Amino acid sequence: MRLADRGRLTLAVLGIGCLTACGLPVDSEAEAGGTFTCLPAPDSAGAVVVDPLRSPSPELPVTVTSSDGAEVTVTDVSRIVAVNLNGSLAEIVFSLGLGDNVVGRDVSTTFAQAEQLPVVTQAHDLSAEGVLDLDPSLVLIDTSIGPPEVITQLRESGVPVVSFEESWSIEEIAPRIEAVAGALGVAEAGDRLVERTEAELTEALDRVRSDGPSPRIAFLYMRGTAGVYLMAGEGSGADSMIEAIGGVDAGSDIGIERFRPITSEALINAAPDVILMMSGGLESVGGIDGLVDVPGVAQTPAGRDRCVVDVEDGTLLSFGPRTGQIVLDLAARIERAE
Question: Fe/B12 periplasmic-binding domain location, by residue (predicted)?
Answer without folding.
Answer: 81-338
